[in-house]
Amino acid sequence: MIPVSLAPEPKGFDKDIRQPGLSAIDELVGRAPRIKRRGRRRAAIAATESRIPADKFPPFWRNALDDMMTAYEQRCAYLAMFIEETGGPTVDHVIPKSLAWDRVYEWSNYRLCAGVVNAKKGNLLGLVDPVDAKIGWFELDLVSYRVVKGGSAPPAQQERIDATLSLLNIRDCCAQRKRYVEEYRRGPGPGTKGIDLSYLEHRAPFIAAELRRQGQLVRGDV
Asked: What is the rounded average pLDDT of the residues 113-119?
């Protein structure tokens, strides 16, 4: 994991996601919706917003995926890797839907996340938010391809870092890191299926940064 800068809220987010979401919440608690729509009104299922079950919020956040894929260059916020073999792209709610109804339809609460990671994260709390992460909190073991706690990780963050490691070290994620390193070491060329450093920096910047930090760049790369 490396720091991720929160992208600006995209144009149209309020109209396409926030307002329809809040209007759905109105209906789910028995209020008149703020936006008129076709079809039957949703049945009231809770006395207050905080009692709405997490699986009952309409998934308008999925409409943000295209903007998120563009804003974050198709990289999972947690893995700092291009989303490919680690599952399709999903929207992760940093603060889970079950705990913060007022953040369900907020761009600032969304992180672009590989499906396999989001499935494991679920409602877990006490993790490192990629937006809060700092350089040196995480390092890469180039033998096992597991992410480990960094040497400069502050004591105050160690519990959160330890909790996050299980999320980062799913088998498929470790396998993908290994492939990136092997392809970089092989290098580009006819029939090699290798990649160069600039490609690696785009697709997996955490791996590229760790190869550089550990003196493992090849072919004169700096």
From this structure: 94
